Amino acid sequence: MNGSAVTGGTALVVIDMINTYDHEDAELLVPSARRIVPVVADLLGRAREADVPVVYANDNFGLWRSHHGELLQRALERPHAGLVEPIRPDGESLFVLKARHSIFYETPMAYVLWRLGVKHLVLCGQVTEQCVLYSALDAHIRHLEVTVPRDAVASIHPHLEAAALEMMERNMGARIVTAGEVDFTGARSAVPDSPPDQREDRP
Question: Comparing 149 with 80, which gets the higher pLDDT?
């Protein structure tokens, strides 16, 4: 199931890219992250130009007393700041802290997307075979459409990335495309007509 255009009520979600890269498996992840940073930066620029909402969903590094500005500053002070600077949030970006793999687990993400009138997510970031995969599944069970640009997601294990992308496409109906195929034109969010079903918003 492939496609290029994205529909109205779309948001770009950037997963775990505000990163210190001082965690386990970081050495395996950094080369893949370095490859996708320019692609994610281009997606961000095009989404912002089209007035499409941008939501950063990010691990909290275990610092629940920190806000997103502190997390960003910490990442920018580390050796891999060059992977963060080009894709840093702007003044209009939204930020959701998460504790586990999925962007929905114990977070306000479902409510935020409903308030924005979002029915379609473009997911980018890391790690494809972990947080991106589980987030796509949770979006699917909430009846949200999902697009994943394969060149805008980073992996630790390439063979697992390939399997994850296939699972998202086959099992979750996700559109697996290239970032260049994503067209944000006409994809602004819309005001929702009614509140979300609370049963669908449970983690």
Answer: 149
